[in-house]
Every structure is written in C-alpha cells, then in structure tokens.
Design goal:
This protein has one domain. Helices cover 64% and strands 0% of the residues. The chain is built from 8 helices and no strands.
C-alpha cells in the first residue's frame, strides 16, 4: 500500500480509539467498510499499472512510463492533487479504460471496487483537466490549403474548417 493510504488507515484507527463513545453503529460500519475496500483498490491499481508494461498497455493503452508522465502533467499543470482515498494515478486509471476500451462506468465501478458516483466524479474531473490542458496534450491539425500539391491530400482541400466562400 502507498504511504498516504497507510496514513489514512492509521488516522482512522486513532480516531476510533479516542472517540468510541461518540460514534454510532452506522458511522462505524461506514468507516470499516471503507477500510475493508482499500486493499482491493490497491490491488486493482497495482495490477493495472505496476505489474508490467504489457499489462499496462493492454489495460490503459499506454506503457508505464507514459502513464507516469501523464499523471505528473496532471499534478503539475492540471491542478489535480491526491485525496485521502483516491490518488491521481488511480483517477487516471479509472478514466483511461472508459476512453480507450469504451467501458461503461458500471464495469469500471465493479473492477475498481469504487462506487458509481466516485468513478463518474473522477472521470469528469480528469476530462476537465484534459480540456484545460488541450493545448499541450492534443495536436492542433493544420488545414490542407488549396495550393497544396500533394496528391495524397488533394481530395481534402478545404475540408478542415468552415469555408465561407462556398456559401
């Protein structure tokens, strides 16, 4: 497990020891159910990313190096930070199967042992970060001009963008 997750578990256990009388059964069950799911979530992210490049490419459509760089870009420029329970790597690992394999949120929810709300929330957050960073992440296409002499692209002359002179 990662250090942040161990810290969270330690903080929850300290909190539980100090405030046993102040907690009701419902809140105790919620805390313990969240603690029980953490090892499954850590196993899932380790299986996706940290096993091998082949597994990472098959599941996320990028190797571990590219995945790490993408997460670093999101941390530095995309204003994404680690939460108590979900790190940036896990958020990106939730987002990429939906994007690359057209998986539904229900399937990712089941695979990652997260709630549907959590998966949907973080997918939208990553998508917003991608949109914010579109200038550095996505290549801008250049239109094929009318003066282009390349036979390969002659049928696409003026296809990119709206041509005002035709209407």
């Amino acid at each position: 497990m990662h250090n942040n997750q161990l810290d969270v578990i330690a903080m929850i256990l300290i909190y539980l020891q100090r405030n046993r009388r102040g907690l009701n059964q419902r809140s105790l069950r919620a805390i313990y159910s969240r603690l029980r799911r953490i090892p499954d979530q850590v196993k899932h992210i380790n299986r996706l990313v940290h096993v091998s490049d082949v597994a990472c490419v098959e599941n996320l459509r990028m190797n571990r190096n590219a995945f790490g760089r993408l997460c670093r870009i999101f941390r530095q420029n995309g204003d994404l930070k680690d939460n108590k329970f979900v790190m940036v790597e896990e958020r990106v690992a939730l987002f990429l199967p939906i994007l690359a394999h057209h998986k539904k949120i229900k399937v990712v929810k089941f695979d990652s042992a997260r709630s549907g709300y959590t998966v949907s929330y973080y997918v939208h957050r990553i998508l917003r970060a991608v949109i914010r960073l579109q200038a550095s992440l996505l290549a801008t296409p250049e239109p094929v001009t009318d003066e282009s002499t390349n036979n390969r692209w002659k049928c696409f002359r003026g296809a990119l963008g709206y041509r005002w002179d035709l209407y």
